[in-house]
Amino acid sequence: MFGKIVLFLSALALAGAQIPSLGFCPEYVPMANFDMTKFLGVWYEAERYFQLTEVVSRCVMANYTLGADGRFRVSNEVTNRFTGIKRVLEGEIKKAASKAEEGKLVVKYTIPLTPETKYSVLETDYESYAVLWSCSGIGPFHTQNAWVMTRERLAPGTVLQKAYAVLDKYKISKTFFVKTNQEDCALLDAKPTQEPQVEGGGEKPEDVRSAVAPDAPQAILNSKKNGNNEERPAHPPENSSEKKPAANTVPERIMEVADAVKGEEGKEATTKGEEGRVEGNVERADEEKKKKKL
């Protein structure tokens, strides 16, 4: 008999993926004067009761909205920690039967054959934390589930302490609570963009088109900007009125070389002429000496 009870509890725990207990569900009254309008917005799952179906889950969040038709809806997002695939489950929150039951939320999901989810808001300040709880039972056995939700993805310890106080108030054991991984979840929300890579490890251009062929106006502005940013000499030259000769062009340089060659040739011809005249004078002097001797 005891073995059958254990087997039944194990099957119940696996089916509901919750914490099984002996006895009936405790009578926890939901939060009084609960205002669903203030509860709207995004809530992040900080901690939850251990669930087999959520072992590979991370970045869990819920978004409560009010449609144009006046109906409240909730969108639950869960990301697989191994594949990175995000799963979204949307549902409509049924209208409460009475004012006292407004803190009891019954969600009917849009996916066919998906069972309704019932949970109560035990307490919330609408701005930082909320404690949710659910319980389902079969005969003398029941399973409980609880969640600590926060407005911040990574809530500080002071906010979590407020939620823990609520759990202690309702005598909900924190033994089975596990923390939800919310690290680096903001990166999953942002769309990845690929920046152009430059070979050789250079800087990445902001615009490929402008890097290859910049627009003329932009190039002119950049040239003016670079001209204005050029460093000026610390000490000006002594004779500012003197101007350095400009660099000659190739044709001018060729003419200068030709003139220099002609000048050298003229000097050589002059030298040879002078040498010839000297030799002629010497020869004439010798002839005159010979004539005098005769």
UniProtKB/TrEMBL annotation:
<dbReference type="InterPro" id="IPR000566">
    <property type="entry name" value="Lipocln_cytosolic_FA-bd_dom"/>
</dbReference>
<dbReference type="InterPro" id="IPR003057">
    <property type="entry name" value="Invtbrt_color"/>
</dbReference>
<feature type="region of interest" description="Disordered">
    <location>
        <begin position="188"/>
        <end position="294"/>
    </location>
</feature>
<dbReference type="Pfam" id="PF00061">
    <property type="entry name" value="Lipocalin"/>
</dbReference>
<feature type="compositionally biased region" description="Basic and acidic residues">
    <location>
        <begin position="253"/>
        <end position="294"/>
    </location>
</feature>
<keyword id="KW-1015">Disulfide bond</keyword>
<protein>
    <submittedName>
        <fullName>Apolipoprotein D</fullName>
    </submittedName>
</protein>
<dbReference type="GO" id="GO:0005737">
    <property type="term" value="C:cytoplasm"/>
</dbReference>
<feature type="domain" description="Lipocalin/cytosolic fatty-acid binding">
    <location>
        <begin position="41"/>
        <end position="183"/>
    </location>
</feature>
<dbReference type="GO" id="GO:0006629">
    <property type="term" value="P:lipid metabolic process"/>
</dbReference>
<dbReference type="InterPro" id="IPR012674">
    <property type="entry name" value="Calycin"/>
</dbReference>
<keyword id="KW-0449">Lipoprotein</keyword>
<dbReference type="GO" id="GO:0000302">
    <property type="term" value="P:response to reactive oxygen species"/>
</dbReference>
<feature type="compositionally biased region" description="Basic and acidic residues">
    <location>
        <begin position="227"/>
        <end position="245"/>
    </location>
</feature>
<feature type="signal peptide">
    <location>
        <begin position="1"/>
        <end position="17"/>
    </location>
</feature>
<dbReference type="GO" id="GO:0031409">
    <property type="term" value="F:pigment binding"/>
</dbReference>
<keyword id="KW-0732">Signal</keyword>
